[in-house]
Write a structure and sequence with these properties.
By secondary structure, the protein is of the alpha/beta class. The protein is 42% helix and 16% strand. The protein has helices at residues 13-19, 30-46, 60-71, 85-96, 114-123, 145-154, 174-177, 203-210, 223-227, 242-257, 260-277, 303-312, 340-356, 365-370, 373-377; strands spanning 2-3, 52-57, 77-82, 100-105, 129-133, 135-136, 141-142, 158-162, 181-185, 196-201, 281-282, 293-296, 315-316, 318-319, 328-331. Strand 6 and strand 7 form a beta hairpin. The protein is globular and about 60 Å long.
Length: 378
């Protein structure tokens, strides 16, 4: 089965081969520690920063919860910036730590408007922390991490950013964005196995944790456990997954060598143009993601029906989420999915499915794709 979903994404043979290696015991091997630190530094390299980055063993959601636990304290006033399912979901995590949630809700089909956010903060900026999502995977909207981060920083508001489905696939300059906590995952643009979450912290975020007036209410979901672990017999607060790190090493290096952000942008533009020329409506009215595209199907068609027919052809794609999720079809030009032969198979399967369901559109998707610059140049 060919997996072309927006995470977990298709895993290349080179990454799978690295994942199969067993070399040492990371609990006791200090040379392994040095190796992992080098791989963590590659995350910082991708983000154009010297800020500290590290991995947590767990799916990316672990890092989101750990960020809230580590940065936010009971009684803090927290701005939850939302224009989608994941942005809105931050309010649950914030409530768990008994902080006050103020939800800033925006149009789910558009990126966060910087002028509107500025106007809101002009009237009310008494917040210790703000959360926002870089890329809303369920709908394919990417928010301006640099613009939002700079605005929040100008009001001395610490920022927590879910960049799980953007890191690697969208250009990020951590220092220029002036964000404080940036969170990623192994299974999206990096196309590595599920199981690692990446964390990048500003000096301000680290100082904030050091000066907390209340203890962090967790050991595992706690950044300080990683940064401050001082048992002389261990280099990590818990057993690391060496196989996952070997896989991430190869995956991140592929991202660096392939100029991944630029590659994702080109595939995204080509995908959007292909569907628009065929007569489809895109969900994103602006700020469309470079890592996936959400296409609105006719009202009479459910995305699950398309998914089933495409699966019968041996290909996995998926629907969206939110108010129009049952009409959304998500095309994931993300990580190792970006291969001409994979997309040719997908478009061939979509053509068959659309014809079977009576969906009218202009031309054949497979033919349009094979005539595109992407198919010719990649």
């Amino acid at each position: 089965m060919l997996n072309l979903c927006p995470g977990p994404t298709h895993i290349s043979q080179a990454v799978l081969k690295a994942y199969s290696q067993v070399k040492t015991n990371p609990d006791i091997d200090h040379q392994y520690t040095q190796y992992q630190r080098q791989i963590e530094n590659k995350i910082s390299q991708l983000l154009h920063t010297k800020a500290v980055s590290f991995f947590m063993v767990g799916e990316a959601l672990l890092a989101l919860e750990a960020a809230v636990n580590s940065i936010i304290q009971p009684g803090d006033r927290v701005l939850v910036i939302s224009n989608g399912v994941y942005g809105q979901g931050f309010q649950d995590f914030v409530s768990f730590v008994k902080a006050e949630v103020v939800l800033y809700e925006s149009d789910w089909r558009r990126g966060i408007d910087l002028n509107d956010l500025k106007a809101f903060l002009e009237d009310d900026h008494d917040f210790q922390v703000a959360t926002f999502v870089h890329c809303e995977t369920p709908t394919g909207i990417t928010n301006d991490i640099h613009g939002i981060g700079q605005i929040l920083n100008s009001y001395n508001i610490l920022s927590i950013v879910d960049s799980v489905s953007a890191i690697g696939g969208e250009y990020i300059n951590f220092d220029q964005a002036k964000v404080d906590v940036l969170l990623g995952g192994s299974q999206k643009c990096f196309s590595a196995p599920v199981g690692l979450a990446s964390v990048t912290l500003s000096k301000r975020a680290i100082e904030h944790m050091e000066n907390r007036h209340s203890p962090i209410p967790s050991f595992y979901a706690n950044f300080q456990s990683y940064l401050s672990f001082d048992d002389p017999h261990f280099d990590f607060p818990y057993t690391m997954n060496e196989q996952a790190i070997y896989a991430m090493d190869v995956a991140i290096q592929q991202a660096i060598d392939s100029d991944f952000a630029n590659k994702h942008q080109k595939w995204a533009e080509a995908t959007r143009q292909l569907f628009k020329k065929a007569g489809f409506e895109l969900y994103a009215k602006d700020h469309a993601s470079n890592t996936l595209t959400s296409v609105l199907l006719p009202e009479s068609v459910a995305s699950l029906d398309v998914m089933k027919l495409v699966r019968d052809e041996g290909i996995l794609i998926t629907k969206g989420d939110g108010p129009q999720g049952e009409r959304l079809l998500r095309i994931a030009h993300m990580g190792s999915n970006m291969e001409v032969k994979y997309f040719q198979k997908m478009y061939h399967a979509l053509d068959k499915a659309f014809h079977h369901l009576g969906i009218k559109y202009q031309g054949e998707l497979e033919e349009k794709f094979m005539l595109s610059d992407i198919a010719k140049n990649f």
